[in-house]
Fold this protein.
Amino acid sequence: MDKKYVYPYSLKEAKELGEVEQYRESFRENIRCAETIKAIISKNFDGMHLGGDTAKAVISEFGYDRVNYVLANSLQELKSDGRFSPDNKEWAKSIYIPENKSHGINMNNDFVVTCHPAVLDGFVNQARKEYQSLNLWNHTHCNDKTSLDYTGKVMVLRPDNLKDEYKTPKDQLILCEGGFGCSPTASGRKVFGRFISDGEKCQYDRSDFIGELKEEHLPDWARERLQEMAEQKPSEPAMGGMEMH
């Protein structure tokens, strides 16, 4: 079953974009996720230890992106609590959670996981370990994209643009072929390309990429696929809907 989309903006921004319903649906799901985490921790904590697969069950229901979002929000809102590890606090800061106030009320408090901080810290460790086991490409594997023209480059897609079943290093790699978004100076943002793994055409926003994969990290299978793609007859990038991975 497809996981619900994690809406990344505040209520104020959603109103400006005409996306209030998308915001509300995601907000309700954030609250449900936080309550589920609280309940499953209560069920699986014996007073001394948290069951080893506790986070995996929640990820299975809500997906990596929402679980990470809710946990990061919880640690950001509870950042003054010294019972969270410095490493987990730094991790939480790396996930952008927009300030979200309505009539002076902090709406982000509605999906804070309210259980013992030390136990929640252990749950965060589990969730991070599950995510790390995916071995995804990150910024350390990439060249900076700031002034880069993407055309003809192998770019690394941000994992939150991929459904959970496609959160693999293989499916992060895209050969960018055109679109105004390839240029660092153009006003257009769309980038057209193909997934190197299977050649499917796709389109994304320039900001959806982490950066260009460094040459030394390019896998042999990708080199072979790029050679095959180069030998194929060129075709115009698709202008229709994006193939969702």
